[in-house]
Design goal:
Helix content is about 40%, strand content about 20%. It is an alpha+beta fold. Strands 2, 3, 4, 5, 7, 15 and 16 form a seven-stranded mixed sheet that branches. Strands 9-8-20-19-18 form a five-stranded antiparallel sheet, with helices on both faces. A two-stranded antiparallel ribbon has the order 1-6.
């Protein structure tokens, strides 16, 4: 053995001796570990964290038809080390993923352990990739909300982002209830330990007051009137005035909740509760109700309509610049006279007028179960932006701002014996095997039953006098039109308007109340020729869908019931 071999042998022996000594010292050190230290080492070695994520709750209509459910998108990835046919895979995936072939090929030839070819694709794309039969391509599911009714109820339902956070509508308002509660624990994986599972608390299911068929009919009617009038947008809300239950809420244009990230700015907000407008002449219903309830006028009270009135030094005219002479309150409402509305407002005075406006729910959110409800704008005496002129303009719906829901809810009190109900969309919450039902809630009683009856009778006359297009054969309809100018940059637009109509039926015992609001119609500016006919066409279908019998049938039924009780 030469000297070189002897040196190598000595080095190897020295290394083995050092290794043996290190092992012996380590074994000796374990003898001095405390019980707690040994337990901690055992815990680290034998336990790992297990988490169970809950499914988000479903949203269904009043007949349990699914409006929002759960599904999966997919992440597309590969482990390049297992790819031997990259050229072929890149060629097939490029048109499906919509990416350049060389970009995909570059990732397939990467030295990385794992690469993501696409962060998220919908189920149909994933299925197309799966059909290629490449085992190397990995499709990992990612939770995603699914909308089997397409964009129906888009603004009401809202959307859920990729972090499982509701961003608008019901999804945002009921985020806590819908998301559920995840469960996690440290699980011992020792074969000597009994294995246990972990179960998350699933999200609650929401049952709405809305019937998808009714909603579909409302959306189609709104789409038709917008197309026929060349309007920019619109809103229709249908509500049961007796309870506040929303039967339909439609806004157009809409967006795809599944592709919420492609929506234009502002599109995700629900215009029915998050956007404001000047309501115009429908406000005369509230002004007249205040005047009647406060004792300022009776239906027979008269005034001399000269066609103009000065309030706060500013002139105000009737919509047609006409002068109607001696006119009673029923005629005022029937012919929608601005001068008359401003006149009775000055008779009431600001304290009485604005007290009633607030009692009807203006200037504050109503508390509907939707995300991002706003309260409108109602200048009050003493505010920096209030002047005496506001008494007159506010009386006929200009110079203040409301949401469509606020306007509908205020008028609904007149259809409900003077009671203002809180509007709502969720009838039941199904959670942990229990059912929590919503009970109707009274917000206030702004006017008496007598006032509500008087005003309804006047509104029936208004439909017969002014709004022939809103009449519905076999049913007595009460209602009022609105034609409001649109403020832009501190002045009113010279030609664009918001045309609206609010109507309720049957007038003597209302089961539904409807607001139709059409923004910037091109064919006509008037609520009477744009919104009122749309109400009538819609009401023809609603009375059938909601099983509301005509007046004659109801009268006959009541007579038979009375005879039965008397006999």
């Amino acid at each position: 053995m030469n000297s070189s071999q002897q040196r190598r042998l000595l080095i190897i022996c020295a290394g083995l001796i050092i290794a043996v000594v290190a092992v012996i010292l380590r074994l000796i050190s374990f003898q001095f570990l405390s019980t707690d230290q040994i337990a901690e080492l055992s815990r680290i070695i034998q336990n790992h964290s297990v988490t169970d994520l809950p499914d988000r709750g479903l949203v269904v209509d009043r007949n349990m038809a699914v409006l929002v459910g759960n599904g999966s998108d997919y992440q597309v990835g590969v482990s390049p080390a297992f790819v031997s046919n990259g050229e072929e895979i890149a060629t097939d995936l490029a048109p499906i993923l919509g990416k350049p072939r060389h970009d995909i090929l570059g990732k397939l030839n990467s030295s990385d352990t794992f690469v993501v070819l696409e962060g998220r694709v919908p189920p149909d794309v994933a299925e197309e990739i799966r059909s290629l039969g490449y085992d190397q391509v990995q499709l990992d599911p990612l939770p995603r909300r699914m909308y089997p009714q397409d964009d129906l109820l888009c603004h009401v339902l809202g959307y859920v982002d990729f972090q499982n956070e509701g961003g608008s509508g019901l999804e945002g308002y009921y985020q806590t209830e819908l998301v559920g509660v995840a469960a996690s624990m440290l699980m011992n994986i020792s074969p000597l330990t009994e294995q246990t599972g972990v179960i998350a608390r699933e999200g609650a299911d929401l049952v709405l007051t809305i019937d998808r068929t009714v909603q579909y009919v409302v959306e189609e009617q709104l789409r038709r009137v917008i197309e026929e009038t060349g309007a920019e947008s619109g809103t229709i809300i249908v509500m049961d005035p007796r309870t506040g239950a929303i039967l339909a809420m439609a806004n157009l244009p809409c967006y795809q909740p599944y592709d919420y990230f492609d929506a234009e700015d502002g599109m995700l907000l629900n215009p029915a509760v998050s956007k404001q407008y000047e309501p115009g002449s429908v406000m005369k219903l509230i002004t007249m109700a205040a005047a009647l309830d406060s004792g300022t006028v009776t239906p027979q009270t008269t005034y001399n309509d000269t066609g103009v009135i000065f309030v706060g030094g500013n002139p105000m005219y009737n919509w047609d610049r006409g002068a109607y002479g001696v006119t009673d309150m029923t005629g005022l409402l029937g012919y929608s006279l601005n001068v008359g509305a401003a006149t009775i407002a000055t008779w009431m005075g600001p304290d009485t007028l604005y007290n009633y406006f607030q009692r009807f729910g203006y200037s504050r959110p109503l508390g509907i179960d939707l995300m991002a409800e706003v309260g409108g704008q109602l200048p009050l005496p003493g505010d920096s932006n209030w002047t005496e002129t506001n008494i007159g303009t506010n009386a006929f719906g200009q110079g203040l701002a409301v949401t469509p829901l606020q306007m509908l809810s205020a008028v609904s009190a007149l259809a409900n014996d003077g009671y203002l109900m809180q509007p709502y969309l969720v009838q039941e919450i199904h959670k942990d095997g229990q059912v929590f039902s919503r009970e109707p809630t009274i917000l206030s009683r702004p006017v008496s039953k007598q006032t509500a009856y008087q005003l309804t009778a006047m509104a029936v006359n208004a439909v017969r006098t002014e709004v022939f297009g809103a009449q519905l054969e076999g049913y007595t309809v009460a209602g009022k039109t609105g034609t409001a100018q649109i403020p832009e940059g501190g002045i009113y637009h010279p030609s664009d308007t918001i045309a609206s109509f609010i109507g309720w039926l049957p007038a003597d015992d209302p089961e539904l109340i409807v607001l139709v609001k059409i923004d910037r119609p091109e064919t006509s500016p008037w609520g009477s020729t744009v919104a009122a006919p749309a109400f009538s066409e819609l009401a023809k279908e609603l009375v059938i869908l909601l099983d509301i019998p005509p007046d004659e049938v109801r009268l006959q039924r009541d007579i038979l019931a009375a005879r039965s009780q008397g006999g």
